């Protein structure tokens, strides 16, 4: 049996941009991606602490060291610059493997730095 479990989480990062005129996705600083064990193209859930919105999109790699958290396309309507969001990815794994799996959870500072 496979179950879906938490794989990675960027906890309480600040939205730095919202770009409605883009095809879609979320752009994330490459340093944050590395720290959270996330990759470009990965599906993520975004939880907005400011307004309660929850939605899914995929990752685009942002400039390393920039602190960039940019919601693109339709997702830009679900955030405001300055909102605090949680970015979560999940993985499917065998039930027994899931019992011992340790997710990557990152708590960046108020500037989206490590």
Your description of this structure?
It is a single chain. Strand 4 and strand 5 form a beta hairpin. This protein has an 8-stranded mixed beta sheet. It is built from 2 helices and 8 strands, in the order E-E-E-H-E-E-E-E-H-E. With 114 residues, it is mainly beta.
Note poorly predicted spans: none
| Sheet with most strands | 8 strands, mixed
Structural class: mainly beta
Large-scale geometry: globular
Q: Tell me the strand percentage band.
A: over 45%
Q: Total number of β-strand segments?
A: 8
Mean pLDDT across residues: 97
Q: Residue share in helices?
A: 10-25%
How many helices? The count is 2
Helix-strand pattern:
EEEHEEEEHE
N-end to C-end Cα span: 36 Å
What strand order characterises the main sheet?
2-6-3-5-4-7-1-8
Taking all Cα atoms into account, the compactness measure Rg is: 14 Å
């Amino acid at each position: 049996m496979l179950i879906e479990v938490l794989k990675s989480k960027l906890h309480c990062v600040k939205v730095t941009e919202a770009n409605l005129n883009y095809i879609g996705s979320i752009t994330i600083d490459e340093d944050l991606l590395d720290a959270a064990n996330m990759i470009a193209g990965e599906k993520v859930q975004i939880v907005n602490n400011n307004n309660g919105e929850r939605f899914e999109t995929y990752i685009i790699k942002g400039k390393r060291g920039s602190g960039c958290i940019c919601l693109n396309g339709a997702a830009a309507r679900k955030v405001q610059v300055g909102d605090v969001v949680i970015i979560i990815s999940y993985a499917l794994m065998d039930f027994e493997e899931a019992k011992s799996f340790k997710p990557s959870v990152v708590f960046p500072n108020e500037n989206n730095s490590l």
